[in-house]
Amino acid sequence: MYELRWFLEDKGNNWQQVKNWFYHLPTPPELDADREPKLNFDNIKKVRMEVYFQCREDIGLKLSRGGLQIKIRSRKAELFHSDAAAEGFLEYWEKKTWKYLDNEGNDRKKKKRDPVRESFEAEGQKGKRFRTQKVRRLRKFDFNGVEFIPVDPNKKVAKGLIVELAWVKINYWSEALYMDLLSLQFELVSEDGENEEDKKLFKKGIEWTLKQKPGLKAKLKSEESMSYPGFFEQLTPVVYQAGEVK
To answer: How far, in Å, CA of 102 to CA of 175, rounded?
Structure first.
């Protein structure tokens, strides 16, 4: 899959400008953006709990929603420059998931405790890892061969674009010990694998969304653009034990 992502650490104007632009993106009639839950951690049932393992910047390994997922990037990221004051790194990832827990994240009424994730997120274990909590909002657009049409995020499309806005807390061991980030991601929906036509379509879709009124006022910088594996390669995992930071 083709992907382009930015991580924003500043909670000031950039956060607000990105969120304002996102909530003004076109939506289908059945999705009322004004009634959509706010991007916060008030509803713990909507929080996605994950464990990322620090490996390499071109390999992503995590436990998420009752499954083990690996992502591999076979070639270097490509610098993408938008006319809408956005610059970042476009990447192509191959993804594979092995499920070990039924109904995790799909049926909330039957959601099960995940002992595997809980074991791996325990403090003090060998091997660098990061515990994350995420709250996500999605916009999905179906490409009909001519233009991008907004659809319900749960609808399956043969080819299209996903825009994800996420508030991410990393190493959430205590209220006093975590990193706050806003993540903005673009992803191309396609089953055709890596090819030039899809890459062109992906770039077209990114340009189209960035220019949607009122337009993105925040400047997205290349130094803030990377994948989760690339971001974690820059960090040192924090271990929280008995009130100490080591």
So the answer is: 31
